[in-house]
Amino acid sequence: MPVFTGAIGWIINWSGVLMLFNPVQYHGRRVLGMRALAEFLPHKLQEIPGIAQGGLGWQGIIPMRAAKMGSIAVDKAIAKLGTPGEFYQQLEPDKIAEHIVQMFSPQIPELVDETMRREHPQLWADVPPRGKQAVYARVQQQLPSIVRQVTDEIGVHIDQLLDPKLMVIDHFEKHPDVVNRIFRDIGERELKLMINFGFYFGFLLGIPVAILDHTLHQWWLLPILGVIVGWITNLLGMSLIFEPVRPRKIGPFTIHGLFLRRQDEAAEVYARIIAADVITLENIGDFLLNGPRGDRTRKMLADAMGPAIDGAAGPIKGAVRVALGPSKYDAIRAAVAQDAVGKTMQPFTDPEFSRRQSEKIRVLIEARTKELPPEDFVEMMRAAIKEDEWMLYAHGAILGLAGGFLHLAIFGVSGG
After folding, report:
1. Are residues 247 and 305 in the same domain?
2. Rounded (5°) CA angle 343-348-353
3. Domains contained in the chain, number
4. Shortest CA distance to 105 belongs to which of 131, 132, 138, 130?
5. pLDDT, tens digit, for every residue of 90-106?
6. Which among 134, 276, 295, 385 counts the fewest CB atoms within 10 Å?
């Protein structure tokens, strides 16, 4: 019997780990009347994937809680790792500026032509080729100072333009596979141990079960004890990984959560994933331009470029302003600035450049994560799924019940 309960314990923990991660997206079917019935079910049952939406199915617990994982990751760790300004400085604004100039400079003639043809086609058509070349050259000459002003302006206002919490939550929600990878890569060793310990726990718990079965000779005993064994097996597996948070001496033994023993190693894995997939130059640029504060970013950048464009006009600014009229000149100036905003942000969306700059972010996150108190570190990894752990325990109980009936079917009642 201990060998049998050990095998059931292994299956319980193995399938429990599968339930944590799979499937990444919800899979299920709608059931007629389920939505109405769900309103009368206990709150815990409504949390089962699909129930509240009127269906029966499943989604991995970790991807299901991806948004919550993002929120907790920011509150417990990322917010303590650095301010938006610190992250931005780690991305080296000077190198960003250099990359912008390198990418943007060849596009100056096209940008100026396109804007002038749209805003004042006749005026631009009357400008001789040599005059146009002079305008291109002057704009390109002014470009480094324009770009430096833009990147400086982003740095000054980054705390108002960038919300790491919203950015991380949004990214995790859109990419639950990233959250899965964080848990899998960080806890790979512990997850394997949890599965194997399912057998050891099941084996040990099977000894008193065998004694009770042999003593009492009741057919209903094995299914009931199977429920208890299944529940406890998963509970002990989770406890083995996360508890106790700090080392605790019991006689000659030191007890410490397996996951917590490797905080430094786990911090390196966590930092690598966050820097490569979440807090990247590419994601920051996308949030700045297309996030909820994108309009503010575009206006700020356009306002910053306006005076620089005046500087590029140089000594002919006054004559052009008189020839066009103040309102038309200002319209062209604003149009050039708006068109330039997107182009000056192109390096933020350059994956290769983003990858090179992410190394600085990785180093910062790794160092700060290693410094986190163990309580914050374990909560960052566990809190998002803690409220759903009961589903794993219930799953263990159901499999334990099935194992009890299976044992009865194969071996019958001991001593009966």
Report:
1. no
2. 115
3. 2
4. 138
5. 777 777 777 777 766 77
6. 295
